[in-house]
Amino acid sequence: MAKDMERSGPSHVAVIMDGNGRWATMRGKPRLFGHHAGARRVREIVERCPDLGVKYLTIFAFSTENWKRTQTEVAGLMSLFRRYIEREARALLENGVRVRFIGDRIRLDEKLVRMMDELELLTSGNDKVHLTVALNYGGRDEVTRAAKRLAYEIEQGRLSHKDVDAECLAGFLDTHVLPDPDLVIRTSGEARISNFLLWQSAYAEYEFVDTLWPDFTADEFAGVVGAYGKRERRFGAVRV
Ligand code: IPE
Ligand code: IPE
Ligand code: MG
Fold first, then answer.
1. Spacing, Cα 20 to ligand 1 middle (Å)
2. Helices (H), the chain
3. Which end of the chain is more exposed for a tag (fewer CB within 10 A), N or C?
4. Would you say 21 and 31 are in contact if contact means Cβ atoms under 8 Å apart?
């Protein structure tokens, strides 16, 4: 069997953590209550990754479209991200997690951006699990920003249009240091990708599960990751 067609576990799993709002509403609580419950789920899933052979975990925390929500929800989420970094930094460092953020930082408040930079730096020596948090992230926005920087390099004469191929363009994406995801999981029963890792997921497997994110346990995560190994990925080729 060709290397590309081997059936092994996914090394990069990306997750669209959806359903926090519905989880809270079902309990008669404000949506932010669901976001807090959802944030608490992340740690156990990150900690399970090494056992499952998942080296890269990328999670969608806030999209470029999520600014359309009420001011209360957006402000509550931004404050949750700051609190999360404050509370989790030590555990992430001690658990060997290297944290990165992708997305456009320009619209995020200065204090949050500083904390993100500090956490990236603090954990930069870690290599057990690579956790990437997509914050103010949108796939189209990412490709657009990459194209803009690429055009600038050409304008400055540092690059020729003849150099532009898929690999060159990918080098300008926020994810340039990461491998492509093998598996993308979305919780809450919605079967769409909502602008997440559009370029990088070209050959990813998708798994849509009904569980709302705050109920998605590390055991359920392990089950979905385990089921992936049973699928055959062909990358456009034919099995010989
Ligand atoms: C996902 O949960 C978290 C974010 C988008 C920030 P939602 O807030 O989208 O929850 P639902 O989809 O409304 O239930
Ligand atoms: C996607 O969920 C974004 C995150 C999980 C951060 P949304 O709830 O925002 O997506 P739509 O609106 O259902 O497409
Ligand atoms: Mg949603």
1. 5
2. 20-26, 31-52, 71-94, 110-122, 139-155, 166-170, 218-228
3. C
4. yes
Mark whether 126 is an active-site residue: no
Between the CA of residue 202 and those of 103, 139, 182, 183, 196, what are the distances in Å? 19, 12, 10, 11, 11
Using CA atoms, how far apart are residues 39 and 17, in angstroms rounded to an integer?
Answer: 9
Structural contact between residues 186 and 209, judged by C-beta atoms closer than 8 angstroms: yes
The 10s digit of each residue's pLDDT in 62-94 is 999 999 999 999 999 999 999 999 999 999 999
List domains and CATH numbers for the chain: 10-138+181-228 (3.40.1180.10)
Which residue has a Cα nearest atom 3 of ligand 2?
63
Q: Which residue has the tokens 């994810």?
A: 175
List pLDDT tens digits, range 157-194.
999 999 999 999 999 999 999 999 999 999 999 999 99
Tell me, yes or no, if 215 is annotated catalytic: no
